[in-house]
Amino acid sequence: MLLRREAQAFRLPMAGPDDASGLVALVEDGALDPALIVAILGKTEGNGCVNDFSRGYAVSALRAALGRWLDAAALDRIAMVMSGGTEGALSPHMLVLAARPAPPNAAPGPALALGRCVTRDLAPYEIGRPAQIALAAEGVRAAMADAGVDEPETVHFAQVKVPLLSAAQIAAGGTAAADTLKSMGLSRGAAALGVGVALGEIDEADAMAAAVGAAPLWSARASCSAGVELKGMEVVVLGMSPAWAGPLRIDHAVMADGLDTDPVRAALRRLGARFDGQLPPHEAARVRAVLAKAEAPRSGAVRGWRHTMLDDSDISATRHARAFAAGALAAQIGHAALFVSGGAEHQGPDGGGPCAILYDASDKDSQ
């Protein structure tokens, strides 16, 4: 008989990118075995662009904190996905995901399933090109295998952290982008196409032939973030599996634009939430995480009204889009500790993006 696993999810506030005190307290209190951590997702208070070093700073702090209990090899197996940018009222925080043996009294599945994969390093000339698409697809399949999830349709979210190109790499020649900021979008887009291929949403031949960042192909379950702090890709897959136990559930929606919260409300209700309007505090407490992508519509308009997100030379459009979508989502959930990531190339329709919700359904199955 296979040992059932149970997912754990802890959302912890951060006083700054170097603040791992909440994580340390969990371990010291016995609530979390550090050896069972699968991934740590975080929102850090940098600009989310090329020169955002808050992401790497946070990873360094996490590795130093966990180094009290884990060796370097164990730390390398944890996917540490930091997303920069807490514009508006977005609150810096981390989401710690762990997988432990399910206790005998754990609620039966299907329940939240977790898997991760850290790929090989990408060569600069591979970033934003078919080689990255193929490697991302391979990474998603490996993460699914790690989670014990066989059916792509049971995957609700695939979070991929990707590298970007440095000025020195671009100067050396042979790269897909001639600009570091542009390379972020190409890297995110290639990874998203790979997710779509792995999950059966996008035909592999179409993905390989696509103009990354321009082709009208997209995944409903991909979330890709870029940063200078890594050279390979870190993949985290979240799905539902009868082989997993416990109260945690996941569902996803696709927002057509930053105002489109109707699909998010529908996902909340499918998970068992009961509400009218904004979630009441007891329901908001059951929402363990909101994971979403945001993007400025390339049309230059939102529902027929002109926007200026793409025309601002001072502030990146990805920063505007994060604040825009986060405000709408926070108004629905009732707080702003949300993982909203900007730049949604091939991640949802133009101007929109996927949104996944982790929900604690404790005691609901019997109601």
What features would you describe in this structure?
Helix content is 29%, strand content 26%. It is α/β, with parallel strands linked by helices. The protein has three domains: 5-106, Cyanuric acid hydrolase/Barbiturase, RU A (60s Ribosomal Protein L30, Chain: A, 2-Layer Sandwich), CATH 3.30.1330; 113-238, 2-Layer Sandwich (60s Ribosomal Protein L30, Chain: A), CATH 3.30.1330; 251-360, 60s Ribosomal Protein L30, Chain: A, CATH 3.30.1330. The strands form four sheets. The protein has a five-stranded mixed beta sheet with strand order 3-2-4-1-9, covered by helices on one side. α4 (130-147) packs across α6 (180-198). Residues 1-102 are annotated as: RU A. Its EC number is 3.5.2.15. It holds the Pfam family Amido_AtzD_TrzD. One of its GO terms (molecular function) is cyanuric acid amidohydrolase activity.
Task: Please specify the SSE layout and strand pairing.
Blueprint: E1 5-13, H1 21-28, E2 37-44, H2 54-66, H3 72-77, E3 79-84, E4 93-101, E5 111-118, H4 130-147, E6 155-163, H5 167-171, H6 180-198, H7 204-209, E7 222-227, E8 234-241, E9 244-245, E10 248-255, H8 262-271, H9 281-284, E11 287-294, E12 301-302, E13 305-306, H10 317-333, E14 339-342, E15 353-360
Parallel strand pairs: 1-9, 2-3, 6-7, 11-14
Antiparallel strand pairs: 1-4, 2-4, 5-8, 6-8, 10-15, 11-15, 12-13
Helix pairs in contact: 4-6
Family: Belongs to the cyclic amide hydrolase (CyAH) family.
InterPro entries: AtzD/Barbiturase, AtzD/Barbiturase_RUA, AtzD/Barbiturase_RUB, AtzD/Barbiturase_RUC
Pathway: Xenobiotic degradation; atrazine degradation; biuret from cyanurate: step 1/1
